[in-house]
User: Fold this.
Amino acid sequence: MAESEAAARVSNGGIDVELTGSGGDGEHLGGVLRDLLSGFAADGQTPLSRRIRVSISTNAPRLKGASRNSAQALLYWTRQGSPLRALLVISVGTVTLLALTGLLVFTLFFLVATFNAVIISLLMSLAAAGGFLAIFFVFIAAIYVGALSVAAFFISTIVVLTALGVILATGELQYFRFLSYKHM
Assistant:
């Protein structure tokens, strides 16, 4: 009895995770997010701001439990399979995290560049007028588009190369593991 109870609770680095038959009962993250987004477009009679507020107030408290259930289901699915399944989960998670980090960096760069361009344009329009202002705006727009293009190219290149490096590294690890099992 004590062994089956110990088998049901697995320690995960200080966090006790209870494994159930299907990876957790209740709602999962996909269903809660679907309900959240469908609440935004529920009906056309109420104003959009009210629909958003009602949908968030209804579905936001469910997000914690749903994310916990989804994490338990993923953990259960990972532990149920072979080490290749665990490697797949780690690889996909790492590549997704890298891609989202690259997207966040580009978004922050885009926001800072936009704010900078607006402030510079405002200050220059206060200081100058006429034909000089038109030429200045053309040059500022060209510099802005060029800077964003260069930033997008370098950020996307770094993200893609890092993701490929992670995929290559996990593949090489699995290859060496396969060779070590083969020679045992």
Observations:
- Confidence is low (pLDDT under 50) at residues 1-8, 10-15.
- The CA atoms of residues 91 and 169 lie 10 Å apart.
